[in-house]
Amino acid sequence: MILSNVPGSFAWGVLEKRHPALIEQVRDAHPYTPRQRRALDALLEEITVGTIEPLPESAHDAGRWATWGRGHLGRRWLDVPFLWAESFFYRKLLQAVGYFEPGPWRGTDPFAPVKQAELDSDPVDQELAALDSLNGLPQRQAAQALLHASLWGNRADLSFRLTAEDPSAGASEQLVADDSAALWSLLEETAPARLAVIADNAGRELLPDLILTDHLLHHQLARHITLHVKPYPYYVSDATLADVLACLRRLHQATGPAHDTGRRLWQAMTTGRLDIRAHDFFCAPLPYRHMPEDLRQDLTGCDLTLLKGDLNYRRLVEDRLWPATTPFTGLTAYFPTPVTALRTLKSDVITGLTPTTLTKLEDSGEPWRTSGSHALVQLRP
Questions:
Q1: Which of 26, 84, 106, 176 is the Cys-Cys partner for 285 at CB 3.0 to 4.6 Å?
Q2: pTM
């Protein structure tokens, strides 16, 4: 199990540096009241020099987190599992700003200014305009370009342009595992399929996810898609329903193919072909192996689950330091549907690599596990 108590490790850097900086960023994002600012100060002191305190008994989910935190409460933040510590930090951050409490700040996303600034940025216009370059391409080639755009997130513009010219060029060279051919074959065999898409980040990363969703629906590779988002703000940029709607409005404001995509997605929601759901488990500090039965049954009705992003990958295979060649298929055999992971590498956990690929990566001397410079497409049929 990955902990955060190894100085210099990626997990250590998140808890020791990223989380304190994030508290300061949140303080500056809204004109919080003196009470909220004191609560943020107390959280900063707790994560830096204190021990893990439980949620107040008045919190609606205090009992649930007390159960999840059994054996962790009262310890140093660095000494408990990294996945649990990260998740509880974000829950306590929402507690500090009064996200769940009655009053005017209830439901106010502390990360909304960062999300909106990114969505309104000039690079988004360039990335949406890059959709024009896909016109006239064979469907498989265009689909591969959109898959790469979804995979790489905010490198979408680069992915559109490179993969539109040659799907084997550019960003493909940074793939440590690539089951995309098997993915398209599976989709074509089961088409039109019922798909579940478990989203990751909002903004510039959610836009290409939605564009890929539209492509699958529009080209009859899927007859129905359920998009699973977070029920409340989580991990700074994780997507909620509000973020999906903001992206749809952004697409509507665009011109050309991007506008058409937004229009089709809007219609798909109104006709039920695209369904948005937000189960509480998506904000739990637990691996997907422990998903509740209602979510398991919901996913079981699908032909394939597309699982986006680094955090979802950590939850899929458990946040452990597996030998990198541990088979991905074996670790995900419990999942209730065939599953494809689309992930840019931003943490230590990795599975399913070939010995040759692992040797090449280790010999490179790069921090390939955590830098975001490499990615993977892994399928468990």
A1: 84
A2: 0.95
